[in-house]
Amino acid sequence: MAAEFLAGNRLTLLNSGGDYFPALIAEIAAARTEIYLESYIFADDEIGHAVAAALAAAAARGVRVRVLVDGFGARNFVRDFQPGLAAAGVHTMQYRPERGRFHLKRHRLRRLHRKLAVVDARVAFVGGINIVDDDNTEPDMRPRYDYAVRIEGPVLRQVHHAVRHMWEVVAWASFRRRFRIAPAAAPCCEPAGSQHAAFLIRDNIRHRNDILNAYLRAIGEARDEILIANSYFLPGLRFGRALYAAARRGIRITVLLQGKTDHPLLRYATQALYDTGLAAGIRIFEYEKSFMHAKVAVIDGNWATVGSSNIDPFSLLLAKEANIVVRDATFAGELRASLLAAMAGGAREMSAERIASQPLHSRLLRWLSYGLVRLMVGIAGYGPKHWRADEETPGVNP
Questions:
Q1: How many CB atoms lie within 10 A of CB 365?
Q2: What are the catalytic residues?
């Protein structure tokens, strides 16, 4: 489904938790009618408890508060937060609760990876930031580097519809009849600015490829520059071909990836593809200052996206994701400047010489990781669809 861009929005770029959590908690404190919040992680830390306290206070003053978290990413939620929130009148649910630590089924990889909040159908937040303190990670990986967007205006209608629909689906699947919600009044979506934006989701029914297709269209139309920052980057057939085609057209392509990671398997698998990217003229940087969790891109200084979707098979083929896509030079310019500053202050450029100098066991580890990720995607039932023609991409010989 093509992105539906709506005019008249006001978008505020939020850099990491330092910008995001004060803005989110302030809106929760100002809520008067309803709050929806979705998060993959809801951590038992200072930020988690601050957000939970704000949600409980809102419910205590009569606001209808609905919190939906993932059953794997927030498997601690039932123990750490649900009793207190329920006592305050907050309705909470988990998407696909974990049934056991060693419960292995292909559908287990289908997670709720979205990070969304909508307050009073008046303001929304979309991005990649979980409910977790930026310093809640290993000492050498602090603080977490990520982005979100505060949204006002007509595109809010799309976000509001998405969170209501997801709540209804999970309530129905969980037989939580008392959590069903009445038909919504039209959200307040009066023009609030001058920016054009579209809200996109990825699911396994009607919106399987909406986020991917938005990337592909923008990459295909690029005329000057493509700048991508993505924490887990393992593109499939269509995305890889689009990038290589853009490189052949002479487009300047820069990709910022993790230099420090909480998932070494995915990082090693990504590094197996560095040779091909560098040979095509794509510049690759690794962010080493701290843990980078961003999923953003800027193309030609006028198109930008911020969201939860990685460019890997787990996001683009399995998880429920949400991105905001923007056509606005001011917003895109601000994000681009922020990314360039982060790269200048904390990233290292990779080179063909550096890759060639790696010992044999290091290169073997990367290709074994790549093969294992392929196997995991295959177990989930998506292997041939995602990978088959990737093997036909010049320079990629798994």
A1: 18
A2: 113, 115, 120, 293, 295, 300
- What homologous superfamily is domain 202-392 in, according to CATH? Endonuclease Chain A (3.30.870.10)
- Could you tell me the residue ranges of all domains in the chain? 6-195, 202-392
Task: Write b or e for each residue in 297-310: b if 16 or more Cβ atoms lie within 10 A of its Cβ, otherwise e.
Answer: bbbbebbbbbbbbb
User: Cα-flanking dihedrals φ and ψ of residue 39, to 5°?
Assistant: -155, 140
Q: Is the pLDDT of residue 392 over 50?
A: no
Write the pLDDT tens digit of every residue in 133-175: 999 999 999 999 999 999 999 999 999 999 999 999 999 887 7
- DSSP category for residue 320: B
Q: What is the pLDDT of residues 232-245, one digit of tens each?
A: 999 988 999 999 99
Domain 6-195 indexed as CATH 2.60.40.10: no
* CA count, 13 A, side-chain hemisphere, 188: 12
pLDDT in tens, 88-113: 999 999 999 976 554 545 566 789 99
CA distance 335 to 327: 12
Q: Please indicate whether the domains covering 6-195 and 202-392 agree at the CATH topology level.
A: yes
34-39 vs 64-70, strand pairing mode: parallel
Q: Which two tokens stand for residue 229?
A: 């920052």
